[in-house]
Amino acid sequence: MTSLAMLRADERAKAGEAFAARGLPHRRIEEWKYSDLRNTIGANDVSAAGSVAWSLPHTPQGLEVLDLSQDEIPGWARAHWGKLRGQGVMEDAAIAFSTGGLALRVPKGTAVREPFHMNLIAGGHGRVLIVLEEGASLTLVETHDASQALVNIEYEIALGANATLQHIRRMPNAADAVRVGTVSATLAKSACYRGHFADFGSKLSRLETNLTLDGAGAEAKLSGVAVLAGKTHADVTTHIKHAAGDTASTQLFKLVAGGQARGVYQGRITVAEGANKSDSRQTAKGLLLGERAEIDLKPELEIFADDVKCAHGAAIGDLDAESLFYLRSRGIPEREARDLLIHAFLADAIAEIEDEGLRAEIWRAVEAALVYAEAAP
Amino acid sequence: MLEIKNLHVAVGGQEILKGLTLSIADGEVHAIMGPNGSGKSTLSYVLAGREGYEITQGSVLYRGQDLTTMAPEERAAQGVFLAMQYPVEIPGVTTMTFLKTALNAQRRARGEKEVDAVGVLKLVREKAKALNVPEEMLKRALNVGFSGGEKKRLEILQAAVFQPSLAILDETDSGLDIDALKLVAQGVNALRAPDRAMLVITHYQRLLNYIVPDRVHVLSAGRIIKEGGKELALELEARGYAQIIKDAA
Ligand SMILES: Nc1ncnc2c1ncn2[C@@H]1O[C@H](COP(=O)(O)OP(=O)(O)OP(=O)(O)O)[C@@H](O)[C@H]1O
Ligand SMILES: [Mg+2]
Known about the structure:
The complex is a heterodimer of chains A (377) and B (249). Chain A is an alpha/beta fold and 377 residues long. Chain A has one domain. Chain A has helices spanning 3-22, 43-47, 75-80, 89-97, 321-329, 334-351, 356-374, and strands at 53-55, 64-67, 102-106, 116-122, 124-132, 137-144, 150-159, 164-171, 174-187, 192-199, 202-213, 219-228, 233-242, 248-257, 262-271, 278-288, 294-303, 308-318.
């Protein structure tokens, strides 16, 4: 065995032990309060799920894509591999039960113009390592097929000084699927992570995003929408850590739930001691389309510095009856009036996506999802 | 055009309109005046079809049809328009988009051809100019951050764009400055036609100098207690409601 193979075997064994000891997360663990995985899937189904498969139709110029199951991997991948992850048990599962992984790298000063599309075509566990060197930039468009039973992906992201990663993640509706994702990103000086997430619900769907703003000028911009129908669920959990001063984070999440669906947003912002002049804004809003739908919003602030700006707000409501009447009294049929108001509700979160074409794709998916979310049960 | 007979309406179990009778013929303009809380807005909402207003007795016929069974959007398509006392702010929907959507929804419901974006823009611009509504306002979210007077002007702009058969104006004059009042009155007068009618709710005789009514009704505690020609508005202004109500009792 090469030393690399030994390292890997060791890492996987340790993660497997950790997973066995801790078991699947459940609702008594605060971060999983609204997403009881233990109640949704068996531990054996998780350990037997195997590795995901990606379809990567085109590698844009300037991007290096690497399959990490091969025997030799370059130094940049080795330098970061396994070092950026958090402490989550599902990260342990991803490491223990997947073989290999996918690594992306954009070298210093390179701006990758075309977006890189990653489409998940087979379920299971997966690891993704993304390294953007100083001044590099990349747009990643991640989509998933609807048919997977279990998907659990662990993302480790290192953004060098002045690097910008735009991560767009679109999860189709998949009523029977269980989908878990954990993003761990570290941002150096003036680096920027833009995460734009759209989730159309599955049996259990949860994306946890842990960002560490490590250098002055680093910026996190997160936005997302969920449009849920039937008995589906979507949970977006974020933890943004302002580790250095002069860092900024904005979050804007809009959740729409119809039927008996459940939407969740949990967002924790930590401003470390000495991280002065940090600016964090956090807005999460929920719109309930039915009496049996549920939305939980939980913004949290932990501030250990004195000189910081923080603004946060969360609100849940129904479609405004007065607005609906106003529109209908002008001749707009009820269904169309509701649509107009729901669109207005979602618009600012989707507008955060800079690329017009990508925005339009999200809107199309939203339109389709709304038809179901507006249907009664 | 409109025939209201012995209308009783309850809101939240409480009777607000208590046997209101009123008819408006084609081509006529009627004014309703009455103290705060007498039920003027309640009447306007009932005519527009807002939920939560229970008709316990009486009837409302619009062009011979029972208005009470129609959905609000159906009424609008049939030509009923209510300029609200408190227009609603709708964030995220631009005024222009709203006007286009509403106009075409009405046309569609009537089986008419929709107007394309360019056509709507042209129509709205022309009407906006007459009412001194700045182009910039049309790009903003509907009523959001508009001043009281701007909201009222936008209501009349809608009337001008939709060309309703029955326009109900609920205190459209309140909040308007003197110049705006004249412009709005001109806009309203431009809508007067032999096949249209108007119901103007106001507290002030001043508006009726510009929009001269054929009939004036005094509403008090959910009933019309006095009716007359345009001179009744002057009498009200001179003597106050209390005196008139006392006379009627
Ligand atoms: N939703 C409601 N629930 C209970 N009472 C209501 C409701 N809406 C209106 N009312 C009551 O009905 C009465 C009539 O109200 P309305 O708004 O029609 O008066 P108005 O004549 O338009 O008064 P103003 O001149 O102040 O506009 C008032 O006493 C009001 O408090
Ligand atoms: Mg009123």
